[in-house]
Specification:
475 residues; alpha/beta; Arc Repressor Mutant, subunit A; Aspartate Aminotransferase, domain 1; Aspartate Aminotransferase, domain 2; 3 domains; 7-stranded mixed β-sheet; 4-stranded antiparallel β-sheet; 40% helix; 13% strand
Amino acid sequence: MTNWMPDTLSGPGPLYVQLADLIERDIENGNLSEGHKLPPQRNLAFDVGVTVGTVGRAYQLAIERGLLSAEVGRGTFVRPRTLPFLVAEPPDPDMNSASPISARGWETAPHLHRMNSSSATDIGQAKIIAPIIARIMEQEPDKVLDYVRHIEPSWQEAGARWMKVGDWTPNPQSVVPTQGVHAAMMSIIATCTVPGDKIVFEDLTYASLARAITLMGRRVISVQTGEFGLDPDDLESVCAQQHPKMIVTVPTLHNPTTAIMPQENRVRVAEIAQRHNLLIIEDNIYGMQVPDAPTPIAKLVPERTFHVSGMSKSVVAGVRAGWAACPMHYRNRMIIANKSVTGGKSFLLAELAARMVNSGVAAEIANKVRMISVRRERIVAEIFGDSTYRSHPCASYFWLRLEEPWLSGKFKAAAREENILIDEADHFRVMREDRSPHRVRIAVGCLPGEDILRQNLTLLHDIMHSAPVVYNDYS
């Protein structure tokens, strides 16, 4: 059946959202049953009096909500609302205790070597932080035990001080403290976009954010990256053809390639954003470690740029310290969205981060971590000098091109057989792509010492120069 006709579109909000809401309502009230075929987009657009693009966005939004499914050559159908019956497996009689939850990045067995984490190197932060926490507990016991009731000015001042780049410092009044950079970016996206909006990501980047926002009904599109990071020409083309609402970019120490976007490209990105009414999230989580970084995009177009940073890559990950410098007309909405999306901040962690920054302790730790990165990059050069890779003295990882005939996933599996955890190229993809870089990201900051680092890098080098067939599993 294709004779479904929605009510008149006259409510608040974009037309495609209204149309998706009507589809959901009619599924709930039984007017659209399981397996019902919806009208072709062109037919429904004519009947309702909207564009084909509006119907297409509505169908896509309904698909993202789990209401519809699209089949190439057949059409769009109402999905079944019932879940398949799951049969529980019988308990293992040999299991006397609960097994630990296992997820990507959570493998922490003593025999495993973590070279897939770019968090700050352990230089003894626990001993430094412990007395600061004790003072906070003694001085602010009521606030520590309660919900956060307001944002302390010292938290904003710390964020402004921490995010300073060159001669640019954000206005402390524009700063919103958050529970890390990921939480900041999720809150910004919730503030500025609605389900169905398109958000641009670099084709290789911190893909966890891209995957997370699809759960919020946003659509991810990609722009190509090259030697200098984001390609402005491709961004211009993507904006002209697909009209995205926002872009997320890592212009300084791009993850995973370590590229630094040159100043002229930042100017072009700012101009493109103005021309196409594009909002910008500038993720500077790694850039804090680069003393001579170019001018941030936030200085070029402050009215449309959210500049975000934190301490997880340069000071300590567990404090979950992050800040977002927002255009002032978005700040209050960002505060509300952050509370709604995350449930709110911890006073103890926010106060701890602020005291560490305002006292200079955070900068001292970051400098020591930076010096370790500089030394370890030299070790990488010694061992992989005959290979092609990208690195930076301030980065805690390098981007290695694999020798023929290695594929990145196969190389990752081979490293895992030797108890070394690394990240393959697909981990950083935001979308399926035809081209493959055949590279892996190898992090060098989380290993406890340089002797272990040398051993593991030498082993990875030997693996790359061995035949992949050695690691084939024919079982």
